[in-house]
């Protein structure tokens, strides 16, 4: 807990004058696993269709524009 | 890079963009608005992306800038009125995780933004310290320092700052570091 107290006391300081705080590897690992669980839970969720629709529209618009400009050249 | 290749690249990154946006804003609804803005900006600036570099890092830079310039205030308002997404989001409840996901998200939401974003980038997205430093526009040492602070603060918020909370076997902690998943949570 000494390490945690040191972190609290130091939390107002800036990033550069850092006291080296080493958490126990098991604590670090537990946090790392939870971090991945949190993130991967969202990564693995279904992607809303609206994003795919949006990108398809953007692509179609660009292709129409490209087609129109090549028509003008021809 | 053709428009279709670029589009396919964007589609592949959407899940990561959503996860990063949710981690930043604390709201799935805001996250999806933020992802939509990011995709539109990326599309409009596609000629600025250098093929061969990390599309994820490029998109995260856009998303992060958009968040800090437009969304941060809105995020606080949404959180105040609706509670954080940690309380609202349906989750798949990871049985193997030592820490409950909802509790972890509440703690994560309490971290200062500058610590939370780097912890997510370094710890979950697959971005390197170098890429994270570039995205945030600070030195690598600053990133390392913020990650350290973030972990320490999380341990404190989750009351796992003392070894007793994770198990009694301090002597073999170093050995366990490599063993991993089976040990934590027993």
Quickly describe the structure.
The complex is a heterodimer of chains A (74) and B (186). Chain A is an all-alpha fold and 74 residues long.
Structure in words:
- The complex is a heterodimer of chains A (74) and B (186).
- Chain A is mostly helical and 74 residues long.
- Chain A has helices at 2-10, 25-43, 49-73.
- The termini of chain A are far apart.
- Residues 1-18 of chain A have low confidence and may be disordered.
- Chain B has nine helices and no strands.
- Chain B has helices at 3-25, 28-44, 55-82, 85-88, 101-110, 113-124, 129-136, 140-157, 173-179.
- In chain B, helix 1 (3-25) runs parallel beside helix 3 and helix 3 crosses helix 7 (129-136).
- At the A-B interface, helix 1, helix 2 and helix 3 of A face helix 1, helix 2, helix 5, helix 6 and helix 8 of B.
Quantity of strands of chain B, as a count: 0
- Mind telling me the C-alpha Rg of chain B? 18 Å
Number of domains of chain A: 2
Distance between the termini of chain B: 50 Å
Give the helices and strands of chain A as they follow along the chain: HHH
Output mean pLDDT of chain A: 75
Task: Note the total helix count of chain A.
Answer: 3
Q: What is the helical fraction of chain A, as a range of percent?
A: over 70%
For the largest interface, the chains and their residue counts are: A-B, 46 and 62 residues
CATH architecture title of chain B: Up-down Bundle
The general outline of chain A is: elongated
Low-confidence stretches of chain A: 1-18
InterPro entries (chain A): NepR (IPR041649)
Organism (chain A): Bosea lathyri
Pfam families (chain A): NepR
Protein name (chain A): Anti-sigma factor NepR domain-containing protein
């Amino acid at each position: 807990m000494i390490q945690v107290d040191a972190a609290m006391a130091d939390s107002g300081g800036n990033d550069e004058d850092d006291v080296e705080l080493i958490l126990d590897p098991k604590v670090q690992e537990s946090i790392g696993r939870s971090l991945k669980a949190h993130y991967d839970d969202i990564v693995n969720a279904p992607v809303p269709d609206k994003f795919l629709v949006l990108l398809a529209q953007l692509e179609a618009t660009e292709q129409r524009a490209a087609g129109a400009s090549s028509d003008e050249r021809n | 890079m053709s428009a279709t290749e670029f589009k396919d690249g964007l589609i592949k990154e959407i899940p990561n963009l959503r996860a990063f946006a949710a981690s930043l804003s604390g709201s799935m609804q805001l996250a999806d608005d933020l992802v939509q803005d990011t995709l539109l900006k990326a599309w409009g600036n596609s000629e600025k992306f250098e093929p061969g570099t990390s599309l994820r890092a490029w998109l995260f830079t856009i998303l992060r800038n958009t968040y800090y310039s437009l969304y941060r205030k809105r995020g606080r308002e949404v959180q105040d009125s609706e509670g954080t997404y940690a309380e609202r989001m349906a989750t798949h409840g990871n049985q193997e995780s030592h820490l409950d996901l909802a509790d972890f998200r509440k703690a994560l939401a309490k971290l200062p933004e500058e610590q939370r974003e780097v912890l997510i980038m370094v710890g979950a997205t697959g971005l390197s310290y170098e890429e994270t430093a570039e995205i945030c526009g600070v030195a690598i040492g600053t990133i390392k320092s913020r990650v350290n602070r973030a972990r320490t603060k999380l341990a404190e918020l989750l009351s796992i700052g003392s070894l007793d909370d994770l198990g009694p076997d301090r002597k073999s902690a170093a050995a366990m570091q490599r063993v991993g998943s089976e040990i934590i949570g027993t």
